[in-house]
Input
Amino acid sequence: MFYLIETEDSLLGLLALIRTRYSVEEKAVRPTRFTYLDTFDWRVWRNDAVVEYREDKQQKMLIWRSVKDGQAIQEIPVDKQPDFLSEVPEWLRPGKLQSTMKVRAFITQTSSRGQVRSLEICGKKDKVVARLEIITESLVKANNRKGEALPLRMVIKPVTGYQKDLNVILSIIEEFKIEGYGKDPFVRLLELSGREPCDYSNKPYAHMTMDMRADMVSKDILLQLLNIMQKNEEGIRKDIDTEFLHDFRVSIRRSRSLLSQAGGIFPKTTLQRFYNDLSWLGTITGPLRDYDVWLLAFDSYQQDLPIKLRSYLEPLREWLQVERAKALKDVIKVLDSKRYERFTKAWRVYLECAVPKRTVLPDANRSILAVSGNRIWKTYRKLRKRGDVIDGKSPPTMLHDLRKTGKKLRYLLEFFRTLYSGRSLNPMIKRLEKLQDYLGTYQDYDVQQASLVHFMQGMKEAGKLCDTTQNAMQYLIDDMAKREKKHRKNFGCYYHIFTHGKTNSTFKKLFKVEAQS
Output
């Protein structure tokens, strides 16, 4: 736990009181640089933790600690500030933190300079029973200038096997009336910079009420999606991690999905113009995302091969890396293009423009509750119409179409879930996500087989395909075909998870009624 030390005199008084029971030894005072890390989308903080990188002349340390009590969950010695957690040796790497961050990179959220004063509290036979750290730090501003200082804080570091002594020390602190530090120092530093945790989300959140106009709410959601796209541009250009492009593309898909439901809300010419631009962006960024997906899953695919074939797949990895680099250049070229600049400027101007008081569009000034209910109900009925006729003989395209419809339905439910706050949509969305995950895996098996054939052709044309690599790739194609066939048999089970029980009546009650209002 962090404790607030208001003055140096109060610290001296506390140490004097501790010395009535224990000896206290000063060990070191180290000038220290503190760097507070998280992913771009705040995955660590959202899991009630902070990652702090400390560097002084003696050591470099990555500290993963709890937000709730400030205690270190794990302290990891490192050679330098890591860009990815995967750079930490596997035997030192916290599994839970890795599962939280996944493929995301560390981003410096804020940093400070100060010093760490270390003290040891010793009991009988001069055994160390606890350690204290007295920390001072000041915000590092732009151009490496020193900013405002944080209040002095004290940290107690327990020593295994001395819980009784720790309890005594804690009671002394309580007796001395030392207060808790309050807000985490990470939060305090962010506030000094005019920020707060979780100031980025990859999902839009529109503040809406049931009677708000449909065009006003739709513009708000679309504007947030445009903001998300543009916030991810720098990460794409710098190639920080693959999720910047992923969030960029998901925002494009969500925007297109909402525009496809916006007939009667926006003029047809406006819809078509911006829908076409978004489709262009989705198409042009697709190859880079495909290479990312393959390279992220490459080790897993390699493990699916017999041991003797695994090394033969390496030329494919090298070829994918080269092609990915080309695709990244193409995407950056698009982001720097006049067409993209014209699109984003025109799109923003349109979305930020106030809605007209009078309109001939039939749904523009209707309540968002009525319009969203209508769109959700129609999309749900479309999903049921497509899904109910699928059987064991249905072609893969029917399952792919069902997946696309399910994705549109999920986006609509997520866009407008706050309108139905008293009637939780979460269980329904979770069941839909399970169906989506199943359909996504099925589609992956189908698409990846075609991708491997395409890759083989590309490698052959480039003179990079040898017989052993082709054999390894063909093995993967055959294996994926078997998995696709096996996975296909489970459709009825996953479809039933979403459609069983009260799903139909719940949709009818929530959305068909709203559609008629």
